[in-house]
Write a structure and sequence with these properties.
Chain lengths: 114, 108
C-alpha cells in the first residue's frame, strides 16, 4: 500500500490552463505538505497544513492554492499555468509532534507546461 | 534554518562503508540533524535523524560531533541500490530545508 499517493504522476499542459494535483495519505497523519523541485533539483517547501489549517505558506504566487478537504487529503490547484511552473511537485505528510515526526514523501508529480 | 555544507559528489565501492560528511556549524541547540536520500525519479526517503547522540537504525548510522557542528552518515555495506543524492538537513519545527546534497555513486 502506498503511504502517500499523488495523481497524476505526469501532466503536460498548455500555458494559461488551470490544473490540479491530488494527494492522499493513509498513514493517519495530521500534517501534510507540498514541496516543489525545480529543474536545478532544489527541493523547497510551498505549503503545510495541519488538521486542514494552513500553517506554512512560503513565498508562492497566488495562482497556487492548496485545498485540504480532510486530514488525509491535500490538493494543489494551479491557475493560469506558466512555463516556470514546470517542476516536480511532491506531497508529504507527518504527525504534528516535532521533532520525532518523520516526514514521508510521495513519488512526485511531473508537471510540464508548454 | 541553519545551513548545511556537503560535498557535491562521492564514490564508494560496493560492499564497503560509505561515509557522507556534513557541516552545520551554525546549528542551534534545539535543531535536529536529519538525513534523507532521493533515488533518481523518486520522492525523498527518510534515513535517520539525531540531536546530539549517535544514532543507528536498519539503514544507517549517524555520528554527530560533540560540538554538533558536523555529522557523518554511515551506510555500513553499500549496495548499488544506495546510489542516490543524500541530503543533510538541519530541521527546526515542521519545515525541512533541503540543500544541494551529495550525489553518492556506488561502484560495482
Amino acid at each position: 500500500d502506498t503511504a502517500v499517493s499523488q495523481t497524476p504522476k505526469y501532466l503536460v499542459t498548455q500555458m494559461g490552463n488551470d490544473k490540479s494535483i491530488k494527494c492522499e495519505q493513509n498513514l493517519g497523519h495530521d500534517t501534510m505538505y507540498w514541496y516543489k523541485q525545480d529543474s536545478k533539483k532544489f527541493l523547497k517547501i510551498m505549503f503545510s497544513y495541519n488538521n486542514k489549517e494552513l500553517i506554512i505558506n512560503e513565498t508562492v504566487p497566488n495562482r497556487f492554492s492548496p485545498k485540504s478537504p480532510d486530514k488525509a487529503h491535500l490538493n494543489l490547484h494551479i491557475n493560469s499555468l506558466e512555463l516556470g511552473d514546470s517542476a516536480v511537485y511532491f506531497c508529504a505528510s507527518s504527525q504534528e509532534s516535532y521533532p520525532e515526526n518523520t516526514i514521508y514523501f510521495g513519488e512526485g508529480s511531473w508537471l510540464t507546461v508548454v | 534554518d541553519a545551513k548545511t555544507t556537503q560535498p557535491t559528489s562521492m564514490d564508494c565501492a560496493e560492499g564497503r562503508a560509505a561515509n557522507l560528511p556534513c557541516n552545520h556549524s551554525t546549528i542551534s541547540g534545539n535543531e535536529y540533524v536529519y538525513w534523507y536520500r532521493q533515488i533518481h525519479s523518486q520522492g525523498p526517503q527518510y534515513i535517520i535523524h539525531g540531536l546530539k547522540n549517535n544514532e543507528t537504525n536498519e539503514m544507517a548510522s549517524l555520528i554527530i560531533t560533540e560540538d554538533r557542528k558536523s555529522s557523518t552518515l554511515i551506510l555500513p555495506h553499500a549496495t548499488l541500490r544506495d546510489t542516490a543524492v543524500y541530503y543533510c538537513i538541519v530541521r527546526l519545527l515542521q519545515k525541512l530545508t533541503f540543500g544541494t546534497g551529495t550525489r553518492l555513486t556506488i561502484i560495482p
